[in-house]
Design a protein that fits this description.
By secondary structure, this protein is α+β, with helices and mostly antiparallel strands. Helix content is 51%, strand content 12%. The protein has helices at 7-16, 19-24, 70-78, 82-93, 105-129, 135-143, 148-153, 164-168, 174-179, 242-252, 261-269, 285-294, 306-319, 340-357, 362-373, 379-393, 399-416, 437-449, 451-462, 480-511, 517-539, and strands spanning 30-32, 35-38, 50-53, 58-61, 67-68, 157-159, 183-186, 189-192, 197-203, 209-216, 224-226, 255-257, 275-276, 297-303, 328-334, 360-361.
């Protein structure tokens, strides 16, 4: 019998590599409708009849009838054998070729048994959700806006405190049950990994349940626990909701990426079926590869807090190598401490649509990120910003597209950085007193003497509207620690000024009969007290 590579590896190659990327290395392709077209490399023709479907992963020539995937194309176009084609594609994907051996029937049978066990476990969990033991879990998921139809579709359930899995699958070999990630071996036998948790099944791209994500119901940490990696499940390569979203991504001509599975489900059920989410882990190259194979247009929708901003910057860095000149990657942010789930509840689909429609294109997001993180009103800051932008642009592999991006940023640097002013966002700004002369001179000295502090506090320093290119005498006695305390104390003082101004406004609202103003005043008083305590402790540092 002829030997073949492990099917999992060839499937991973097809999943990791875009057929458009593979074929366009040899055949110029143009997108028309949902497919790409070019002249067939297997027979002479002047009118393109060679069609490539990125979504399906196949090519077909309507002239000569040639048809296949990335492996067959590589073999036929380069006249090489299967083994050599696999090696070439693995190099493109950055994967190590496994041993050349037949697929073990015992492994196939074992994997099939895992799916049977996880599927039955999902049925058990869902039954428990509607029993007395799952009352709290059911009340929680109902309060989050989940209907019975949503619970049924996503097979949401409840893992009780007792060992339902270890107690039910007594006829299954312990090693097999442990390999599913549902149970672990303890001093007194097997015990359930998931206990007293709301359960979200994790489906693979084919719709099979391969793992679970369990949410705590009592506020304990971690909030979410996922099945550990198994033979069938790898968190870095699994996207929550992708099996439900795949067709919608094709129809919408984009995918939307949110931060959590509840957000993904609510988005899918309320007007945005093309939404997916990573599994409790940061976004990975594997996630992006899967999404880009389905469609290269992606909207990342993150919370507007610092964590969300950092996640967006990281996603930007990961997606850059996958960009092509026909990609449309954007970044949307949900502000006000909310997430997509809350926006949908309070503002409905239209509110969420406005957020998605106003998403910032990647080229603008990267530019804004650079200006926020580096003080480009100083020569040192501009130098650091230049290096950062260059390091990001270098990640783009499409040579022509990279050149256009470089030209665009060169134009922006020429037109903006020599007369740079911080780009204002849509956040309302509180007018504060201008910085006095002595403070300004001190800050100019600090910026020129300690560039590492500029990188750390660049956003705050930029908001002061100071000309940091101005000359100053280097006669200050501030060392770097004292300089940092100076910046932080100034930041706290201006924060307290802002709070006091906000308080006056809420006092006027309270006098006008606004019932909610009182609680806001109390919160501001608490914030002022905390800020003053921090300022006092900072001043008292020797």
């Amino acid at each position: 019998m002829a030997k073949v590579y492990n099917n999992n590896f060839t499937d991973e190659l097809r999943q990791r590599l875009s057929i458009v990327d593979v074929i366009s290395r040899r055949v110029p392709l143009n997108k028309k409708g949902q497919n790409y077209w070019g002249c067939c490399p297997f027979h002479n023709e002047k009118t393109p009849s060679f069609s490539v479907s990125e979504d399906k992963g196949f090519y077909h020539c309507f002239g000569c009838g040639e048809h296949g995937d990335i492996i067959s194309f590589t073999m036929k176009s380069e006249n090489i054998d299967f083994k050599t084609a696999i090696k070439e594609l693995a190099d493109m994907a950055g994967l190590k070729v496994p041993d050349y051996k037949p697929r073990d029937p015992a492994v196939v049978a074992r994997e099939e048994s895992y799916v049977q066990i996880t599927d039955k476990a999902a049925t058990l969990y869902q039954q428990k959700l509607f029993e007395e033991s799952g009352k709290v879990a059911l009340e929680y998921i109902k309060k989050r806006g989940f209907s019975d139809d949503m619970i049924k579709k996503y097979r949401i359930g409840y893992a009780p405190k007792n060992g339902i899995i270890s107690g039910t699958f007594t006829n299954v070999k312990q090693d097999v049950l442990i390999a599913t990630g549902l149970v672990r071996r303890g001093d007194y036998g097997l015990y359930d990994f998931f206990r007293d948790r709301l359960m979200f099944p994790i489906f693979n791209a084919h719709g099979q349940i391969v793992a679970f994500s369990g949410r705590s119901l009592d506020g304990s940490e971690p909030k979410y626990m996922n099945t550990s990696d198994t033979e069938l499940f790898h968190k870095r390569q699994t996207i929550f909701g992708f099996n439900f979203a795949r067709d919608a991504i094709h129809r919408a001509n984009r995918s939307i990426v949110v931060e959590g599975q509840i957000d993904a489900i609510q988005m899918q059920c309320h007007g945005f079926p093309e939404t997916v989410a990573p599994l409790g882990t940061a976004l990975t190259e594997d996630h992006i590869a899967i999404l880009c194979k389905a469609n290269r247009n992606i909207v990342f929708c993150f919370d507007g807090d610092n964590a969300g901003q950092k996640a967006a910057v990281r996603a930007c860095g990961i997606v850059l190598p996958f960009l092509r000149d026909n990609s449309d990657v954007r970044f949307a942010f949900v502000s006000g401490g909310k997430d997509p789930d809350e926006v949908l509840k309070t503002g409905g689909e239209n509110a969420m649509k406005r957020i998605i429609d106003s998403a910032t294109p990647l080229i603008d997001f990267l530019w804004e990120t650079t200006n926020k993180n580096y003080l480009v009103s100083t020569p040192g800051g501009r130098s650091q910003a230049e290096k950062y932008l260059k390091s990001q642009i270098e990640k783009i592999v499409d040579v022509d597209f990279k050149r256009e991006i470089e030209n665009e940023y060169n134009s922006r640097k020429f037109n903006q950085w020599h007369k740079w002013k911080k780009n204002k966002d849509n956040t309302p700004q509180i007018d504060l007193p201008p910085v006095d002369y002595i403070t300004q001179k001190t800050l100019v000295y600090i910026v020129n003497a300690y560039p590492e502090l500029v990188e750390r506090y660049g956003e705050f320093l930029s908001s002061l509207n100071i000309d940091f290119d101005a000359q100053t005498n280097n006669d200050s006695l501030l060392d770097i620690k004292a300089a940092e305390r100076y910046i932080v104390s100034l930041k706290l003082q201006r924060y307290i000024q802002k709070l006091n101004k906000d308080k006056k406004e809420f006092i006027q609202m309270a006098l006008s009969g606004d019932a909610g103003a009182k609680s806001q005043i109390e919160k501001i008083d608490s914030d002022i007290k905390t800020a003053n305590e921090k300022l006092e402790s900072l001043i008292n540092i020797e």
